[in-house]
Specification:
There is one protein chain. By secondary structure, the protein is α/β, with parallel strands linked by helices. It has helices spanning about 10-20, 45-50, 65-80, 110-120, 170-180, 225-235, 255-260, 285-290, and strands at about 1-5, 25, 30, 40, 55-60, 85-90, 125, 140-145, 165, 185-190, 190-195, 200-205, 215-220, 240-250, 265-270, 280. The strands form 4 sheets. It has a 6-stranded parallel sheet, with helices on both faces. It has a 6-stranded parallel sheet with strand order 10-9-13-14-15-16, with helices on both faces. It binds ribose-5-phosphate (R5P).
Length: about 290
């Protein structure tokens, strides 16, 4: 019997994955010590009697430093309970965008996180990492899982001559994946120059969008700067409806206000991060990779 253990921020995805796999969902207690440190505990009966020699999957999005610590503690508790195989699923890998030292003196933060997570697991799955190369930072085998295909699921069936647009060249593959899953439409991409964490400049292509529905596809929406700039260009060019889709709706600061304020028709995201705009689950694609 496979058991799924969830981080506190990934409970819905863990439950969906348990359903997909026919696995048991472990009760977990999340709390804090009086000094503010995190406390997690597996259900005592489960830990004492039924994880010995079992395959256990720990699911934990690491969108915060606390979530990183919580994941390491859960891995330790699962090992302590005698699991024979421990698979760690990172629905969202925090610090994944700091995948190189961009200036002398900077850490490769993605590698530092990967090393810590590696020490407690036999295998890692990372859903749509910002760069697939981060998988090489893990010591056990790490596999990238493509979460983009499910982004086509919530789109209206009757999109008008749709364009699937990547707001920068790096997201082109994602836009193609969503277009292929949707079944029709063209793809295009803009170019992006990032001036700071919040300031981006979009250089549009000459794609003709007037009267067409546009689906903008990215891996992450963080501050919403990239998406809102892209949406602004599309509105100026008389696009019909503009839909925003992303795998990871990080939604830092006032991202939602920026997007709705830019005039988007709808925002769709997966459950790698559990947000108000979560409309579809990556559980089936994770289950496919595991089976
Ligand atoms: C970066 O290249 C990523 O693919 C996203 O475009 C970026 O993380 C989005 O960040 P923001 O929403 O802050 O513009």
């Amino acid at each position: 019997m496979t058991t799924i253990v969830s981080g506190s921020a990934s409970q819905s995805l863990a439950a969906a994955l348990a359903r997909e796999l026919g696995a048991r969902l472990a009760p977990v207690e999340y709390d804090r010590f009086p000094d503010g440190e995190l406390f997690v505990a597996l259900d005592r009966d489960l830990a004492e009697s039924s994880l010995d020699g079992e395959r256990v999957i720990v699911v934990g999005a690491t969108a915060s430093s606390d979530a990183h610590v919580e994941l390491l503690c859960l891995q330790d508790a699962v090992r302590e309970a005698g699991a024979s195989e421990l698979i760690t699923i990172l629905p969202y890998m925090g610090y994944g965008r700091q995948d190189e030292a961009f200036e002398p003196g900077q850490p490769v933060s993605a590698r530092a996180m990967a090393r810590a997570i590696s020490s407690g697991t036999d295998r890692v799955l990372v859903v749509t990492p910002h760069e697939r190369d981060v998988c090489s930072f893990f010591e056990p085998t790490a596999t990238a899982v493509d979460g983009a295909a499910v982004l086509a699921d919530p789109l209206p069936a009757a999109l008008e001559d749709p364009v699937f647009l990547a707001p920068d060249a790096g997201a082109t593959g994602l836009a193609e994946t969503v277009r292929d899953a949707y079944g029709r439409g063209t793809t295009d991409h803009f170019e992006k120059t990032r001036h700071s964490g919040t300031d981006v400049e979009i250089t549009p292509s000459n794609v003709a969008v007037a009267g067409r529905d546009v689906v903008v596809v990215d891996d992450i929406v963080a501050t919403g700067g990239t998406m809102s700039q892209a949406v602004g260009v599309l509105q100026d060019r008389d696009a019909c409806r503009v839909f925003v889709t992303c795998v990871h709706a990080l939604l830092a600061r006032n991202a939602l206000t920026r997007l709705w304020g830019a005039g988007v028709e709808a925002i769709y995201a997966t459950d790698t991060l559990e947000r108000s705009v979560t409309t579809t689950s990556v559980a089936p694609v994770i289950a496919d990779v595991l089976s």
